[in-house]
Amino acid sequence: MSEWFRSQFGMTPAMQGRLLSSLMWILVLWLSRRLIMLGFARTVKDHGVRYRWSKATQYVAVVLGFIGIASIWSSVLRGVATYLGLVSAGLAIAMKDILTNMAGWGFIVWRKPFELGDRIEINQFTGDVVDIRLFQFTLLEIGNWADADQTTGRLIHIPNAMVITAGLANYTRGFQYIWDELAVLVTFESDWRGAKSILADLSAKHAASATDVAAAQIARAREKFFISSMSFDPVVYTSVQDSGVLLTLRYVVHARRRRAVSEEIWEAILTEFAQRDDIDFAYPTTRFYHNVAEGKPGAKPSPA
Predict the structure, then answer these.
(1) Do 62 and 115 fall into the same domain?
(2) Cα four-point dihedral sign 158, 161, 164, 166
């Protein structure tokens, strides 16, 4: 067989031995990783733990593969070292994007701006991190045409270099709660003070548990980030729009429960307002106002 390889491909026995050793080394690493993962599949039921071990064994196998193959071919590689040095500058330019993505991967592993399962927004893409690889990471998209941070079902593959060149927002890293707002517009004739009191009571009822947990999390986050003191109590702000009095309810909610909590509060608002004859929702209308007949005594003009 050795003579056949030599006659057909011009490979010396030494070259054949190195090639065979390289293939055997790759096979040993592949079998070892498969056996390790089969053992974990039988003993570990947590999908997240199995995924992390799969990634860790993959990285270890790749590193050991490079080291083993480099040692096998070391005598050959010495002869081409000078040539590689001459072309390294050209390769660096041609492989700029690949090297930048690898640098981004190193930044993700070292600085950990996000981890698997985190909800992030980067370069107008928002989603949950479901995979991190050497050249790219993958998001399960939320938002877009789906309202209130619901998933669209699409997987978005983003180059790792983007974590270096673009701004990144993490919804759940360190502090898993965000502020949400509900805008409720009532007519000018409504008892807006009563409506505001209803909103305050409902927000205190539905956001009380989140408020306590958020306060505890922000206290721990202050040990790592410079965050000033803030209040997590729900609040209702009052403003005036063209069609009525706008009551804006602001409250703290878990980043993954924004739509569910919003639905609970809206259903409670609809139920409470339906029981009040002096509170009604406002909507864009056209109204003719006769100042002489309807104006306040001190603000209407004298009749012609």
Answers:
(1) no
(2) negative
